[in-house]
Please model this.
Amino acid sequence: MFYELIQLALGNLSRARGRLAMTAGGVLVGTAAVVLLIALTIGLQQAAEAGIGQSGSLTEIQVWPNWGRGPGGGSQDEIPKLTIETVRALWQIEGVAAVLPMINLQSGELEAGDYLGYAQIMGIDPQLLPYLGVEMQQGQLALGENQVIAGAMVGEQFYDPTADEWQPLNVDLMTTPLKLRVYQWTGENQATRKFNLTINGVLAPGGSYDYTLFMPINQIISLNEWISGQQIDPKTFTFDQVTVRTVSREATNDVSNVIREMGFQPGGMGEFLNQLNGFFSTLRLVLGAVGGVALLVAAFGVANTMTMAILERTREIGLMKAIGATDRDVLTVFLIEAGMVGFTGGAAGLGVAIFLQNVVNQALANAPQNTDGGGMGFFLPIDPSQIGGNLVVIPAELAVFALVLATAVGLGAGLFPALRAARLQPVIALKSE
Model:
């Protein structure tokens, strides 16, 4: 029975091809607008992510105390600290691959031959080095007693103390003997300790630790105790920095939310990526709503077309009911017609959107680029190679969504006319001219 109703609906549509084309044209424009605007935001988001890079920093979250307020807006004394218990709690969060607590050396100076230099000297557990998310330029990623790993820019932070003017000097850390000098102040007296350091490796440039020198955390704790002259109390001890590494980029957002609920402030490139994705999600909704206005206008066209069809086929409706068609049958026929109008317009709009996608992406891929590395100066400040020439991206789920949305718009617009047709009395319908 339903198959016969579909055949009847298709036959009715074929009798008014011009009206069908014009009505479906409105749905075409609305569907194409929605798809293209959403596809543009997807392409821009991928371009932004490509600009950030695909490195391990996208799964890295820096955890800081929320100095703005304590939990529930409490006082500064209630702000959670980066304690040992905090580190244990962070390990329990679902989606966390590793928690890397670090502490800074309170004071220290580097010596490379006759030159002096400074760096952020941090202590880390050597067993957690594989989770640091760094690449080596030279050497190996390993730490032991009096062994260090240097950031890419540490060798450029030296100077000649005997020179009249300060001028940065570049030292090859892998071939130059390196020493660490630490100071202890007790009243007016100063004590000094000096250590020979072994450079195990130098990190590749461009990471978060270009100006950092890593040492074993236990050795940094011991040096800080000597510098301050006080033993560290495990109950009150706090880390200077805690880095959380997630299992994937997709898990970073959920982990950041849990960290925020614990009263801490997440940061780093992973958190920045979450904020960026949130911005594009909002932009996608806004632009999708703008395109939806065109679909709304098309819905009025569908409703008008179906209303006119009912007025023209009133006697036909009465005849259908006279020979046994139920209200549901009449309702089904008109809903099928409205749905087919929406589906036809949606399929055509999707085809237009895919065609324009190929045109835009092909033009982008063939566009000239600036020789200074600034990207496409004439309308886009990006390098097409970063996004593979794809500025407009229509994923499969967006195509399916567009077809479903267009069909739903047709069904929704045709519902009231269909109900009106189903409620016509056979006798009154047969008397109509």
Q: What stands out?
A: Residues 70-74, 373-379 have pLDDT under 50 and may be disordered. The chain has two domains: 2-54+275-431, 96-246. The radius of gyration is 34 Å.
